[in-house]
Amino acid sequence: MLEIAALSHTYPDGHVAIRGIDLTVPDGQLVSIVGPSGCGKSTLLRCIAGLIRPTGGKVVLNGQPVTGVPEGLAVVFQDYSRSLFPWLTVRDNVALPLRRRGKSKAERREAAMAALESVGLAGAARKYPWQLSGGMQQRVSIARALAYQPSLLLMDEPFGSVDAQTREDLEDLVLQVHRAEKMTILLVTHDIDESVYVGDRVVVLGPSPTGVVADVPVPLPSERDQIETRALPEFIGTRAKVGRLVRGGHGGADVTNAGPATPDPRAADVRAACSDG
Amino acid sequence: MIKARRFALGAAGAVGAILVVEAVNRLGLVDEDALPAATTILGEAGRLAVDGDFLVDVGDTLRAWAGGLLLAVAVAVPLGVLLGSVPFLGTASRFLVEMCRPIPSVALIPLVLIVFSSVTQQKMALIFYAALWPILINTLYALRDVDPVAKESLRAFGFGEGSVLWRVSLPSAAPFIATGVRIAASVGLIVVISAELLAGGGEGVGIFLMESQAGGGDTAVMLAGACWAGALGLAVNAGLVGLERIAFRWNTARVEGVS
Ligand SMILES: Nc1ncnc2c1ncn2[C@@H]1O[C@H](COP(=O)(O)OP(=O)(O)OP(=O)(O)O)[C@@H](O)[C@H]1O
Ligand SMILES: [Mg+2]
Q: Cβ contacts (< 8 Å) between A148 and chain B: which residues?
């Protein structure tokens, strides 16, 4: 159980990034987080990861206040290319964190290869990160997090740089791993469709300094399918609801505030809807 | 391809310079004593390569140089790591570092002559001082500039500060530290020969140069010695560049955009 209470963070330069976030996530839930660019999503994840100490409120994980990095955590950073180590091969990048898991070198390499295989990058294992495209690097950082078998996985826009087909494959991979290992996942995305497709629930954050605008349950069965699920009336209804909340900015489903209807749901992108102030 | 072309151009430049020196001499443009013919100088240089006395001098210079340089690496790298990774110490030491750095090594010759009695120790102390700064400064800034996201990504997997230093900060700073060592190596060679010229005493390339000029000596021998000093510097630099390229292929390849 992850409990976030009255969490706020002000950066040393005086910038108030988040103000008063309350959020409770039961074990094994997959929570999508959407919100306008620059609203403080990455800051929120950093606070949960114990990488920065919030200036107010608290984060409690399994009854323990988070003061440092909690056990069993993995993070997929938004800056995926900067988070990979250029002096290590792709395989060694993925294998490195497994040192914390007390595995032998052979076991680490084997787990790394399996994870790379699952993101379709087994062939790139011996290359260096800087020899890969942006989308491939992003998949390496996802593989690194999955190989670690975390109990809490934080993903900050993990599919931003890959093509639509790969993106759907990765969404399904995360869903499959989530079902198999029952880890808690917080996934930040700008794609409203994606937030509904992968999430057990969608948390909508407001503009900076951010707070929770709405917490939308996703009434979909846990087995999901790229074609069928997206055609379900529940999916379409939830997507529209989240879209309105994101556009309304705050105060909830204010339909009159919503922008013109977009024919392509993928274009209902938060980044497009709420440009960075 | 590009490499071969670059090499050919470099060789052409060197041959051209030799031809100019030769022509200047043959045409009688300058006094024979001031600038001997290039072929004479090269001949002398060839003779020096098998001259036992000269080789003793070279050996002595190189020994002092290597000793001073190693000492500087042993002190400057840990110190730079410390000052670069503990912000409080870095700030506290900044003023001192910026104060001491501009003092030329040769200005310390009188002090060194008093403190150390052995000539080799005197030379090593001067090389140490000169080599210290490029290594220290490069290490310090390289550690300070390690990408915070890289450090965070290891930290996020539960690794402690020590592991982050060893597995992220040091590897990512290593190419810059190596560059600092290479600069220090070149500076050290200049300093040791200058010190030999200025302070005298004992053996060394600088001493050889002084003695070759004593009593209206032979300019060709002196210039041949100078050529060897230059060749030493070139060899040291080329060797270290080569090592850097092998050890930090990830960095050079990334910077140059080739794989
Ligand atoms: N280290 C920092 N110092 C000062 N301000 C910061 C720092 N990091 C982020 N901010 C500010 O805090 C706010 C929130 O940043 P954050 O990165 O959390 O946003 P985000 O929601 O993740 O944005 P995006 O969707 O673009 O990734 C931004 O206005 C940003 O300028
Ligand atoms: Mg962000």
A: 157
Residue of A85, A86, A97 lying closest to B157 (CB–CB): A97
Interface pTM, i.e. ipTM: 0.84
Residue A212 CB coordination number (10 Å): 18
The protein residue whose alpha carbon is closest to atom 11 in ligand 1 is A17
The tens digit of pLDDT for each residue in B65-110 reads 999 999 999 999 999 999 999 889 988 888 888 888 888 888 888 8
Given a cut of 70, whether residue A63 has pLDDT beyond it is yes
What is the token pair recorded at B201? 């005493």
Strands A73-76, A152-156: pairing kind: parallel
To the nearest whole angstrom, how far is the Cα of B172 from the nearest Cα of chain A? 8
The CATH number given to B59-209+219-258 is 1.10.3720.10
* Backbone φ and ψ of A80, nearest 5°: -60, -35
- Taking the CA of residue A37 as reference, the ligand 1 atom at the shortest distance is 25
Encode B98-129: b = buried (16+ Cβ within 10 Å), e = exposed. eeeeeeebbebbeebeeeeeebbebbbbbbbb
* Count of A-B CB contacts under 8 Å: 63
For residue A133, CA distances in Å to A95, A114, A122, A171 come to: 20, 20, 15, 19
pTM recorded for the entire structure: 0.84
For chain B, the domains span: 59-209+219-258
Alpha carbons A227 and A19: distance in angstroms, whole number: 38
Cα A165 to Cα A12: distance, rounded to the nearest angstrom: 41
* Structural tokens at position A147: 């190989």
Q: Is the CB of A36 under 6 A from ligand 1?
A: no
Unique residue bearing structure tokens 């402690």: B160
A149 CB near ligand 1 (under 6 Å): no
The shortest C-alpha distance from B55 to chain A (Å) reads 41
The reported pLDDT for the residue numbered B26 is: 83
Residue range A224-236: mean pLDDT, rounded: 94
Question: Nearest CA to B162 among B153, B172, B151, B177?
Answer: B151
Residue that the structure tokens 């090592």 belong to: B243
Summary count for chain B: helices (H), strands (E): 12, 0
A259 — pLDDT class (breaks 50, 70, 90): very low
For residues A49 and A76, give the distance between their C-alpha atoms in angstroms, rounded to a whole number.
11
